[in-house]
Amino acid sequence: MSNTIDNQKNSDVFADDPLLSVQEAADYCKVSKSTINKKRREKSIPCIRAFGDIRFRRSDLNRFIDNGLSWGWSPVEAS
């Protein structure tokens, strides 16, 4: 019984913080796949390798955005 409860807790954690593919991460952040890959190579955004695929936690992407870390361009000020 305890194992079933533990599995359900783990499944709830992933439902709240899904693992996104490179394309899904790019779509979520509204940037190109090459930008996501560049930030991954720079170790600006943590990633997970699962069965040969690269995945990103949505919470890590949110933290990157919320901390105001740069995608490599400066914001344009409204005139």
Structure report:
- The chain has helices spanning 2-16, 22-29, 33-41, 58-66; strands at residues 19-20, 48-50, 53-57.
- Helices cover 52% and strands 13% of the residues.
- A hairpin with a 2-residue loop joins β2 (48-50) and β3 (53-57).
- The chain is of the alpha+beta class and 79 residues long.
Low-confidence stretches: none
Helical percent range?
40-55%
Order of helices and strands: HEHHEEH
Q: Could you tell me the strand content as a percent range?
A: 5-15%
Kindly, what is the distance between the CA atoms of the first and last residues, rounded to a whole number of angstroms?
Answer: 62 Å
Could you say which overall geometry the principal axes of the C-alpha atoms support? globular
| Arrangement of strands in the largest sheet | 1-3-2
Kindly provide the radius of gyration, computed on alpha-carbon positions and rounded to a whole number of angstroms.
16 Å
- What's the helix count? 4
- Average predicted local confidence, pLDDT: 79
Describe the SSE topology:
Blueprint: H1 2-16, E1 19-20, H2 22-29, H3 33-41, E2 48-50, E3 53-57, H4 58-66
Antiparallel strand pairs: 1-3, 2-3
